[in-house]
Design a protein that fits this description.
Elements: E1 8-11, E2 19-22, H1 25-45
Antiparallel strand pairs: 1-2
Length: 64
């Protein structure tokens, strides 16, 4: 990975273990949507309760 390359990470704090990465914000947002969908489907199949959303999110930029 070059120094100027950026990898973005999104995690869903309401769903432990649910995270996604991507090269762009758009790609990462699409990946987290798919990850959340898959995570929730798995919880339903396993008979686990779906937690109510309890957090908010925002982007943070840091200088390299």
């Amino acid at each position: 990975m070059k120094v100027r390359d950026v990898l973005r990470l999104l995690k869903d704090p309401d769903l432990p273990g649910c995270a996604a990465t991507g090269q762009t914000i758009e790609e990462t947002e699409q990946q987290i949507r798919e990850a959340i969908d898959l995570h929730l489907r798995g919880m339903r199949e396993d008979g686990l309760p779906i937690p109510e959303p309890s957090s908010s999110v925002d982007y943070v930029d840091i200088a390299a």
